[in-house]
Amino acid sequence: MLIVQKYGGSSVANADKIVNVAKRITNTFKKGNKVVVVLSAQGDVTDELLAKAAEINHEASKRELDMLLSTGEQQSAALMAIAIHKEGYPAISLNASQVGIHATRKYGNARIKNIETERITAELERNNIVIVAGFQGVNRYGDITTLGRGASDTTAVALAAVLGAALCEIYTDVDGVYTADPRIVKNAKKIDVIGFDEMLHLASLGACVLHNRAVEMAQRYRVKLVLRSSLSDADGTLIKEESKVEKVYVSGLAVDKDIARVSVIGIFDRPGMAYQIFSLMAREKISIDLILQAINSNTTKDITFTVPKSDLKTTLSLLEANRSIIGFEALSYDDKVAKLSAVGAGMASNYGIASTMFEALYDCDVNIIMITTSEIKISVLIAECDADKAVNAVHEKYMQMSHFGTPNKL
Amino acid sequence: MLIVQKYGGSSVANADKIVNVAKRITNTFKKGNKVVVVLSAQGDVTDELLAKAAEINHEASKRELDMLLSTGEQQSAALMAIAIHKEGYPAISLNASQVGIHATRKYGNARIKNIETERITAELERNNIVIVAGFQGVNRYGDITTLGRGASDTTAVALAAVLGAALCEIYTDVDGVYTADPRIVKNAKKIDVIGFDEMLHLASLGACVLHNRAVEMAQRYRVKLVLRSSLSDADGTLIKEESKVEKVYVSGLAVDKDIARVSVIGIFDRPGMAYQIFSLMAREKISIDLILQAINSNTTKDITFTVPKSDLKTTLSLLEANRSIIGFEALSYDDKVAKLSAVGAGMASNYGIASTMFEALYDCDVNIIMITTSEIKISVLIAECDADKAVNAVHEKYMQMSHFGTPNKL
């Protein structure tokens, strides 16, 4: 069968690790599978390249950064082909232009539009293991665009989708999805099976084990996705379509510290104000989360929301530049916040889960700044310095209350 | 006017040097010129990438090495565009695939077949400074092939030719072509103007200041070529078509230590033996130099020749593998040899130049292993350990005898 495997930067950080991964790949190949491999740049290569650019120009153009950064994945791919040859197996490396990974023109954060399959299929038919440089595409001008940090996952899922792969394996340095970050919560348990929706929420909520768009794309194209460790033979976590279950608990907890709170204070209370603010953000592709609107008086209201920390500066200057149009009194912000979220299919029908969270936070003296809920998640905004304490307290409480699900039954 | 500039790896080795080169480029641009820049990989990047590959596999495939190495030039090009933007000028980097630099399929040592001009012309019309990754092309399969070490010079000359540039400036860390290597010969003088043929001989004889194929191509397409230092504003050396001159002396001396002597001993003396041996080498694209044939007896002869050191192993095993066909008695070789050459247009008509060289070598007790002469050069093969002493002695003698030419009059 055709298997797509993706290995992250830490899995290919040096020669020994590349050789280790080459052995894994050839083991899969030896069993009679066709194998397509997607690689990230080695270890810190991307950061080193960014530092090189920053040393020259702090505001380097995104087009040129994409030209620069995309070389990291091409290097990994070539080195892996070289390692597989050493193992005695046929392999060929291809970059985005050679494969034909067509992406939108937004440099630094492009989306894959379509992928040509001719070259990869031809190489698979020549019995080659095909190594594809992740994280990159080419736009209609033939220019290289990158797909955003961590987007090699997306490259892998997209390839699995267009090639009709039986399985897409994402290898990282963790052996699966956990009920909470095991570096912070000691008792965190590995999840064997999780639904796409829950995984999507965990990923977007800062669990960081899998790129968000990769999960969305896997769900849309029904790609069977497995998250596994490149260092062990453990089974990992299978991510798949939810089956109907009667009773679902919490799947996991996620903490996102990479956010900032922005409050627009004293907006005149008439229709269209929220639209005006958020369309500004949308135009700059700034993703907004946790929106809260409070009415102060009969005539003004405040709107508070969170944005990624990296977008805070842009957000504030956008709002300032449009102050006269929006007509607000003041802006306030806080970039020392964190979002703690509990995710689980069907949680909406069990608000005990929310109250248990609030109780745990109260018990450990953590103040809640904002709350939002959806059908499968509860998120609270808290002070960043409280985050580790909070996630441990909530995890402990959910364990006591047997709130963590039995996702094997999904 | 349109100027093509090429900067070598040492000229862009770090952020400061890149910024320095960016200023040179924008100075040319500010004067109203259109500028196309060709760059090598930064400093030791190519060697570092080769070391990475060798750590994994000592016999890495040439296709994959080309995928790997070509990233070095792409990085330089992107970083230079970023530096030029910082200076406040428009620039765009392009790799071989984006430009359309079509090359033969021989990985590691491909030749440029043709270059598309549409993209570069369009970018120049948008008033961009165009930065092209040197050293690389794409073959008919869309795969990357590199053009051999030092071949960014060739990329620059080829671009100058197809774009009809008024001038092609090759910037290095030396300020021109010298009568001998100034690191070895203290009294070496800079040459202001030199003919293509002589330059070609100096380059291929190990003077190493300019890539051989670049000079050939400049001659064929009548590209005006200047070799200059990226660190000073000195005039450099102009390389151009020879004009007819009455009296020509020696242009310069070159030493090539990267060669090995191979002797095929006791070959049966019948027609076609030399062809048999050298066609073997030709098939592997091993370049042969200094061929000498001696007759031992009525029935056998010896053939001695030199090859690049890197081809010695292949040469010996090729000969061994074909021993029964060629029918020789023994092979001998020596990789501790050097070739000392004197080059000058019209030297053929002045054999005083040869005898002066032999006298200088005799005076300093250097044994001559082989001698060859052509219309514009005399080469002697000597022991590698004698090379520095020999070039100094010959240079000194030529100075005394006023044998060095007055190339300004070319």
Descriptive overview:
The structure is a homodimer of 410-residue chains. In chain A, strand 13 (225-229) and strand 14 form a beta hairpin. Chain A folds into 2 domains: 2-173, 3-Layer(aba) Sandwich (Carbamate kinase), CATH 3.40.1160.10; 252-405, VC0802-like (2-Layer Sandwich). Chain A is globular, with a radius of gyration of 23 Å. The two termini of chain A are 25 Å apart. The first copy, chain A, has 13 helices and 20 strands. By secondary structure, chain A is an alpha/beta fold. In chain A, the strands form 5 sheets. In chain A, strands 3-6-2-1-9-13-14-12 form an 8-stranded mixed beta sheet, sandwiched between helices. The first copy, chain A, has a 6-stranded antiparallel beta sheet with strand order 16-17-15-18-20-19. A two-stranded antiparallel ribbon of chain A has the order 4-5. Chain A binds chain B through residues 15, 18-19, 49, 52-53, 55-57, 60-61, 63-65, 67-68, 70-72, 74-75, 77-79, 81-83, 85-86, 92-93, 95, 97-98, 119, 142-143, and chain B through 15, 18-19, 49, 52-53, 55-57, 60-61, 63-65, 67-68, 70-72, 74-75, 77-79, 81-83, 85-86, 92-93, 95, 97-98, 119, 142-143.
Report the end-to-end length of chain A measured between terminal Cα atoms.
Answer: 25 Å
Structural class of chain A: alpha/beta
Total helices of chain A: the number is: 13
* CATH topology assignment of the largest domain in chain A: Carbamate kinase
Q: Which CATH architecture of the largest domain in chain A?
A: 3-Layer(aba) Sandwich
Would you count the extended β strands of chain A for me?
20
Rg of chain A (C-alpha, Å): 23 Å
Query: Proportion of β residues of chain A?
Result: 25-35%
Determine the most extensive contact between two protein chains.
Answer: A-B, 37 and 37 residues
Fraction of residues in helix of chain A? 25-40%
Overall pLDDT score of chain A: 88
Outline of chain A, from the CA principal axes?
globular
The biggest beta sheet of chain A reads: 8 strands, mixed
Question: From the structure provided, what is the oligomeric state, counting identical versus distinct chains?
Answer: homodimer
Low-pLDDT residue intervals, each spanning 5 or more residues of chain A: none
Instruction: Give, in spatial order, the strands making up the sheet with the most strands of chain A.
Output: 3-6-2-1-9-13-14-12
Total count of domains of chain A: 2
